[in-house]
Amino acid sequence: RQFVEKIEEKIGGAIQVDQIKVRLNKQVVLKNVVVWDQLGDTVFFLPETKIKLDSYNLKNKDFVLNQVQLTDPFIYFQEDPGGGLNISFLLESLVADTTKPPLKLKVKKINIDDGIFRYHTFRATPNIACFSKDYIQVNQFQITIDDLYVDSTGFGLQIREMEGADVCGFQLKNLNAKLS
Question: Model's pTM, two decimal places?
Answer without folding.
Answer: 0.80
